[in-house]
Structures are given as structure tokens and as C-alpha cells.
Amino acid sequence: MISEGEIEKLGELAKVELTREEIKNYKKDIQEILDYFETLKKVDTEGVEPLVHPLELVNSFREDEAAEIIPEESKFLVKESPDKKGDYVKVGRVLSF
Amino acid sequence: MIDLSRLTISQAKEFLRQRCVSAKELVEMYFEEIKNRNNELNAYLEVFKDAFEEAEKIDLRIKNGKELKFLEGIPFALKDNILIKGKRVSAGSKILDGYIASYDAFATRKLKEAGAIFLGRTNMDEFAMGSSTENSAFGPVKNPFDLKRVAGGSSGGSACAVAANMALAALGSDTGGSIRQPSAFCGVVGLKPTYGSISRSGLIAMASSLDQIGPIAKTAEDAEMIFKAIKGKDPKDATGVDRPERPLKEKIIIGVVKEFSSGGEGIDERILKQIESASRFLDSRNFEIKEVSLPSIAYSLACYYIIAPAEISANLARYDGVRYGKQRSGEFGFGKEAKRRIILGSYVLSAGYYDAYYGKASKIRRLIKTDFEKVFNEVDILMTPTAPGPAFKIGEKIENPLAMYLSDLYTIPVNLAGLPAMSLPFGKIDDLPVGVSLIAPWFGENLLFKMGKILENAG
């Protein structure tokens, strides 16, 4: 059984704030979904290789060449970032002392 | 006078070529429909007024005797997770409030090169997570056949726009049925191409091993034309593949899936009657019908709801206040379903549960793919229902995530295996359209188009 404490912890780790109400509701929803997943336990997967990609692609290499940087495009991207200062993307404090 | 409800791409091209209608007049006709119907249907989030200017440029080219490009002057709607340079893009979420795309998606660029006109961007479930567009931050799309019902999802806006004659064609994206299911609910044609056949560059990612862009159109022929215009690989999507299409066989054997032939929770049995009726029709046209078994397919839904949320929780990490989005929670943060899937995805990937959930699901995914490989040695194409019933009522499933997830029962196995599939309107239940789906082997889109053209008028 998943607990409200686990939901709260997952929220913290995934950086989504959850209200008490949301924690309660997600606990119920996710427990139902996990119960549904129980059906998978019946499947014999002994010796089966996992498939993480439908077409099992091989590496798609490019030539190791410097790409042209288009100044307008870089400016555009900086402009669309959540916060900025001049030509720089501004981020919140990462380290705390 | 042109009847938009019957207009196809090739007819529109012919009308433009013969100057029966100008590109600008065509845009005006669609804008008139949007003006009349979008308030109640909520299919478009934004309409692009510059479509007129694009149309005028095309009219000038026609006037100067230039030959029309492949989709020149064809009015399109684009799902709001496909980037158009210089236009806002929201993925149905408030987290991207005011965000403007800095480049064209690969599919957008291909459509532009073919001369298509963009009428606007269409409503969708937030980050394409949902089966009804009720998860959109901008309100649900209504079904044009019954305003109390959903248009399906997540590409509900695109399917509704085509069905209600507010666009001649549209693009959507399909991760677990998001093109096919709304197409079935709205009575239009929807194609989910082979994984990798259209570069995903510029498609806002949901679950990267499952996502694929595809067309929503009035006919199988229209879908074929759009697919040909937008397919291809580019260096910005390392998962793209460029393989020749499969040669068409003379004699085609159609498989019906034994595991999908009986009812069950949430399945309207009248849908199964539609498959029987489609089988009878194809039998009368001298196609061989064969029942086949895919023993692992029953586990697809559980498998998908482990793999998809796992990939979602990773993909949505980029909305971190640095790269995209100001806040992950609160008024301009993620909505309810997005958060639910982030939590679920984080759980199935967490230490101690990884092997039991993600590891196990990935192995079962292999078994599902192997089932399809085996079955395509016996038959050339599969036929299944698209959704377990016609469009459901708005509000009917939104409080019960598992019931909502079950509406993708028939479409999900295709994404897990990376196969191409197409939903075609086939008859009605209680005056609501329903869809029949065809599934071809990898890179077998040409077979879907061939069979789709036979089946689409038979319902």
C-alpha cells in the first residue's frame, strides 16, 4: 500500500507542491492504478530482454563539426526563458549557505 | 458554392488550380465557420489572422501562372504542441503562459514547404495527457455531434476542427491513441504513422519512445497526401528512421484479434458488432479474414501506464523555472493529471520499485512486440475497434483516472510496438460516429491507405 507520506515525498523529489487534499486524492488514485498493475505479476518474463524503444535503434551519429550559431535564435531563446538579465538566463539560488 | 463538409484536399487543389476559388476565399470560408462555431466547440486556442496574408501571396503566385505546390493553399489546423516559429505554443498548459516558439517543428517546416496555410493552433489535453481534452487548462473541446460529449483526446481540438469544417486538415500527435481516438469520436480519419517515420523535432515531448505526429483528415487519401508531405528524418531527432515503404501484396489477408472479440469492463458491445460488420463487408469484397491471437496484448494498458508516466516524469523535468516555466505548482503550474503522472512516473522509477514496475513493463513490452511480429507472418493487416465505445459525456470519466485510461485499450498496443495504424469512421452508434482501426506492419502505411480507401465508405 502506498502511503500519504510516500506521495508527499515523491512530490518533494519531483518538485511539485501538493496540498493535503491533493495528497489524499493522489494516494487513492495511484493506489487504484498500482492495484491494476498487479495483473503484470502473472506474466512470465524469465529470460525476456527489456524493450525500451520500439524500433531498437542503432546510434545515429553526426559528423563532429561545429554548428553555426545564429545570434537571433540565441537571443530569441534567452528572451523566452522564464527569467533573464541582459543576454543571460537568470536562475534561482542553487547553493545555500 | 463549395460544400466544406464534402471538400477534400485534391478537390480543393483542383478548385484553386482552375481558379473556381482563391486561396483567400478558402481561408475566409473556414474563418467564417470558426467564427460561427468555435465559441461553443472550443477547438481552437488561437486563430492566426496572418493566414490571409499567406493566402494572398499564394493567389498572386496562381495569378502569375506558377504551378501549385503539393499542399499549396490548403488550410490546416495544428495541435498546440507542434511548434510554429514566432507563434505562441502552450501544449494546453498554463506553465508555458506567453511562450513563443523560436523555431519550426520538422512537420511544420515540411507543411510550409508544401505551401500549406495555418489557420490556428488547437486545444488539447495538457501536455497530451488525456483521452477527452478535459485536462486542457483552457476548457474541454466539445464533440460537434453532441455538445454534451467529449471530442476525445488528446488531439481533440484538431479532430473537432476537421469534423466541424473549421479546417480542411490538421496535425495531431499520438502517444497512446491521441490521434485515432478523437478521430473516431468526431467521425474523421486519423493516422498514427510508424514510430520514427516523421521527425519529432519541434513536437513538445510527452513520452519519447511512444510519441508520433500524424494527420487528421476527411479521407484516407487526404491523410496519405499529408503523410507523404511531412514524413522524413532530420538530424535533430536521433530516433528518426528513413526506410522505404513495404511493397504491396496482391492478396491481402485481414486479421481480427481474438483477445478483442469479447466484451468487458467499459466496453460497449455494439462496437464489436461494427467490427463484425466491417469483416462481413471485406469478406464480400473477397478479402480473406482470419482470427489471430496476441496473447500478451491484454497487458498493454498496465504496461503503458508504467512506461508512459516514467518517460513523462523525465520529460517534464525541463519545466524547472530555468529552461521553461516559472513555477511547477500553483496557478501557473502543472494541472491535476500532469502532476498525477509525474508522481506515478517518479514512483515506478524509484529505487526499490524500478524492477517490479518499469523493468517488468519493459519486458512485457518486448512480448507485445513479438506477438505482433508473429501475427504479421500470418496476416497482412489487423482490424480492431478504435475505442471501446462512442464519445462519452463530459465529466463522465474525469474523476476516475483508471476508467479514462481504459478508453485507450485498443490503441495503446500500437504505440508500445511502434506500429502504424489508422482510424476510419465506420457507422454510428446512437447517432454518434465510431471508428474502426487498421494496423499494418512497421512502415506499411501504404497498405493502410489502400485498405482505408476501401473501408471508409462502407460503414
Automatic annotation (TrEMBL), chain A:
- The EC category is ligase
What does it do? Allows the formation of correctly charged Asn-tRNA(Asn) or Gln-tRNA(Gln) through the transamidation of misacylated Asp-tRNA(Asn) or Glu-tRNA(Gln) in organisms which lack either or both of asparaginyl-tRNA or glutaminyl-tRNA synthetases. The reaction takes place in the presence of glutamine and ATP through an activated phospho-Asp-tRNA(Asn) or phospho-Glu-tRNA(Gln).
Q: Which reaction does it catalyse?
A: L-glutamyl-tRNA(Gln) + L-glutamine + ATP + H2O = L-glutaminyl-tRNA(Gln) + L-glutamate + ADP + phosphate + H(+); L-aspartyl-tRNA(Asn) + L-glutamine + ATP + H2O = L-asparaginyl-tRNA(Asn) + L-glutamate + ADP + phosphate + 2 H(+)
| Subunit-structure text | Heterotrimer of A, B and C subunits.
Record's SUPFAM superfamilies? Glu-tRNAGln amidotransferase C subunit
Gene3D superfamilies, sorted: Glu-tRNAGln amidotransferase C subunit, N-terminal domain
Biological process (GO) annotations?
glutaminyl-tRNAGln biosynthesis via transamidation; regulation of translational fidelity; translation
InterPro entries associated with the record? Asp/Glu-ADT_sf_sub_c, GatC
Q: Which family does it belong to?
A: Belongs to the GatC family.
- Species annotation: Candidatus Niyogibacteria bacterium RIFCSPLOWO2_12_FULL_41_13
NCBIfam families, alphabetically? gatC (TIGR00135)
Q: What is the designated name of this protein?
A: Aspartyl/glutamyl-tRNA(Asn/Gln) amidotransferase subunit C
Molecular function terms in GO for this entry? asparaginyl-tRNA synthase (glutamine-hydrolyzing) activity; ATP binding; glutaminyl-tRNA synthase (glutamine-hydrolyzing) activity
